[in-house]
Request: fold
Amino acid sequence: MTRLTTLLLFLALSFRCSTAAYADEKVDDGKLRIIAFGAHPDDAEFQMGGSAIKWAKLGHHVKLVSVTNGDIGHWSMAGGPLAIRRTQEVQEAARRMGTTVQVLDIHDGELMPTLENRRTIARLIREWNADLVLAHRPNDYHPDHRYTGILVQDAAFMVAVPFFVPDTKPLTKNPVFMYYPDRFKKPYAFEADIAISLDDVFDEKVNAVDALVSQVYEGGALGSEETLIKRQAGDPVARKEILRESWSRRNGRIADLYRDTLIEWYGQDAGKAIKHAEAYQVCEYGRQPSKAELKKLFPFFDKPTE
Reply:
């Protein structure tokens, strides 16, 4: 495959993503509009895929944006072919979740907090008419994660300023901006303002993550031939069970870390029983929601958890 052919195929895939997203942008049906930014084609799916499924089941509109194209995120392939592959993977994950997805054509590992990129993020938030914006914290381990967080922070005020990117209509109300959790303590640790039970959709999240083959079965940038063997990459049944066990531990750790928050939102008995969770922290920028407003943004608490 020539470089030109690769570029044209990636652009076609991106256009297909953005065309679907554009159609959904025009919907005004009173439903919530959530946009989640991840640095790479897997980050948003990993961090909030379960919540995305829950929103989608209730008819709300959810868009996941990969700010880079992931073109160095594998140990044995790179460039345009990898960008195309990872775009196809997140498209399939979006189909399984019932969400919309878009991959920006910025090289993996090269994201910078430039004015051009700030404009791009602000446009995306405006075009989606977002009620809620999710992103990495700006002190995450990966430079692309950090700069995604900074770009979203920098857009938090500007999305309502009329003459910033005047080619898109400014928002008349500032969205709520929230962070994904991470393990980093400096300069300050993540604190969960809300935690969401995934027990009723956990298998569906695993099924969505299963679509991200290059990352979850082949190990992404730090994988190897040994990774393929360890994760039973050639056996779809065995590898998916390994994946389920891995994600049960991962979302189980979040449930254990933020058990007090789960109890606060679900009550003592239900909160203590939750096995898998996702959690979010309100960003200090953007609209500062009350607990009642958060409950409207996360309308999952009137149904029993399983």
Notes: Residues 3-195+280-297 form a domain with the Rossmann fold fold (CATH 3.40.50.10320). The beta strands are 33-38, 61-66, 100-103, 132-135, 176-179, 194-197, 277-286.
